[in-house]
Amino acid sequence: MPTLEDVARKAGVSTATVSKVLSNTPYFTASTRDKVMRAVEETGYMPHLAARALAAGRTCIVGVVFPWVYDGIFTDPHILHILEGIEPECSQHGYNILLITPRLTTSGVDEHYLQLIRSGYIDGIIALDNVPFASVLEPIHKKGIPVVNIGYHVTSYMVRSDDYTGGYQLMQHLVALGHGEIGIIDVQPDLNYSAEERMKGVYAAAEASGMSVESLPTARGDFSVTSGEACAADLLARHPNLTALICLNDRMALGAIQQARRMGRQVPQQLSVVGFDDIPLAAASDPTLTTIRSDAPRMGREATRMLFSVLNGQTPDSVLCPVQLIVRQSTTAVKGGCLT
Amino acid sequence: MPTLEDVARKAGVSTATVSKVLSNTPYFTASTRDKVMRAVEETGYMPHLAARALAAGRTCIVGVVFPWVYDGIFTDPHILHILEGIEPECSQHGYNILLITPRLTTSGVDEHYLQLIRSGYIDGIIALDNVPFASVLEPIHKKGIPVVNIGYHVTSYMVRSDDYTGGYQLMQHLVALGHGEIGIIDVQPDLNYSAEERMKGVYAAAEASGMSVESLPTARGDFSVTSGEACAADLLARHPNLTALICLNDRMALGAIQQARRMGRQVPQQLSVVGFDDIPLAAASDPTLTTIRSDAPRMGREATRMLFSVLNGQTPDSVLCPVQLIVRQSTTAVKGGCLT
DNA sequence: CTGAAAGCGCTTACAG
DNA sequence: CTGAAAGCGCTTACAG
């Protein structure tokens, strides 16, 4: 492999000059540039990134930190759509993506992660740090690497999805359809920041329409389909007069629909059900599911742009990404209810 | 950040010695090691990877090359399950994953990809190189980086899914259920290597059971749900006596089921339908889909192990990963047919 | 505008 | 077993 020195010799200039031409400093004449570029062509020179990284203190690598909090990390569509937004921005800036998946437990992060963060290999980080029991941010802060977090853990630069408004819209949608007897399938508190925000939104909308938050029948699932079934069974048995269910994610909603059917309740004619996330199955299930879609690629894109702006010495504002209510077949006006 | 020299000074030895202790060469006494390790502790030393890469010629980075052949790259479950198998192996070996997504067109790969490959940043590569019209392997070969390919493009080390056997099993399954009038929904040749192999398997099984391959009614889709619908409409109109359809992927199979229903054919009572891939929806659709599952995480794992073995100077054998027939509700014995 | 030289932080023959 | 020294391939003040 040819080095800078080979190019310099061939062009009849010093390595310093070649370096300057190649890194687009303004200090050279057109004729020098031509000589250098010709030599680059002829030698097939390509910069050695590790050498450049050592000398310049920049690696052109951004770390994308997806903590390994559960097995499904690589198949979670949300995470992947975020990556989909990150990749083109990095590519465009000539940056490479190092995929970092620390094992995150209540006792902290793993050793390999710590080493990597402190290794000088990474110019900036986009983290997906959003579980209450632990954070990946601390070693990053300590090392002083610029970081943008997608999630609710607090740092200087953040991108969040508007979970609160999503929850608000779901409740509002059901109220507008005339529903008054609404059950909730949520999850245990302190399990997930987004879920907490969603619930706050649901409650705010309930209060805004004059409902008493305390009296909303509630069951607690764990995001899984089966927990949705169990919760629906519980709620519908205890409160047969319910006309609608708000589920904190789509998978529980799909489980709830299955269970409602089993108990002889048609969806949506006798029971409206809403979910959250707009997973692919939500558009393909029967009935299709009314839900909230967040713009994950946009979150990735915004986070990456923020990171580059930080790397350029600016201090961008944090971003709240809007969500969208997707009305499908699983909700309808309450029978005999009055539309507002 | 403390450097090797800081550690050496504090331990009262040379940097060469510290380096030897840290890289586990056998050339030091226990007492030296203790001194060094204590100094490492006290200084909080962490090796600078770029410096190490430059000096040692190893970066501890493996590139995972997923060519950007279509938008869905980040949401294709198959790709992600492969990544799921790659990550733990790399992590275990102390290697980091650089995610490389070259834009692949008939005119070749993009410039940024070429630079990266030739940059000296990457010790080894796992590629997912499997579309007939272009390959990402050539620049890798040219640069001489060890590479394992997951797919049908030829290189020294390869991992493939046994598409052929998958196709064979689907046909065999239908024949065993007594089906004799079987339609095929395939895709255009030269579009996808895996699809070609699947078809070869289907044909081989057909011949093995005495069918004439030429007479199999066939329609050509493009992997999409809607193309599955169109193909089913075509086939069932032209050949009303068909009792089963083999579709080269699940999405076309799901489309075919929809269309069959619309045309008044119950699945599976009046028409058995099989797919290929076992996408998540295959287990959740109505009816659930009989299909072929390939073990993507295993493919990722095998490829990574092969790569590390190549990096260690060995020459591992290529791997053919077995597939599995998943029998679900969309297939049943032909009415009045004789089970063999 | 150009170049000589130091230096980024490590590893690795080599000599002892 | 240990260390002095060269070198990996680049960038960056600095002097001219």
Molecular structure report:
- Two copies of one chain form a homodimer.
- The relative contact order of chain A is 0.12.
- Chain A is built from twelve helices and twelve strands.
- The model of chain A has no long low-confidence stretch (mean pLDDT 93).
- Chain A has helices at residues 4-11, 15-22, 30-43, 49-56, 77-92, 111-117, 137-143, 163-176, 193-208, 225-238, 250-262, 296-311, and strands at residues 61-65, 96-100, 124-127, 147-150, 157-161, 182-187, 218-221, 244-247, 272-274, 291-294, 319-321, 323-326.
- Chain A folds into three domains: 4-56, lambda repressor-like DNA-binding domains (434 Repressor (Amino-terminal Domain)); 61-161 and 296-321, 3-Layer(aba) Sandwich (Rossmann fold); 163-294 and 325-339, 3-Layer(aba) Sandwich (Rossmann fold).
- Helices cover 41% and strands 15% of the residues of chain A.
- Chain A starts with a helix and ends in a 14-residue tail after the last strand.
- In chain A, the strands form three sheets. In chain A, strands 2-1-3-4-5-11 form a six-stranded parallel sheet, sandwiched between helices. In chain A, strands 7-6-8-9 form a four-stranded parallel sheet, sandwiched between helices. A two-stranded antiparallel ribbon of chain A has the order 10-12.
- At the A-B interface, α4, α5, β2 and α6 of A face α4, α5, β2 and α6 of B.
- β2 (96-100) of chain A pairs antiparallel with β2 (96-100) of chain B.
- Chain B binds a DNA duplex (16 and 16 nucleotides) through α2 and α4.
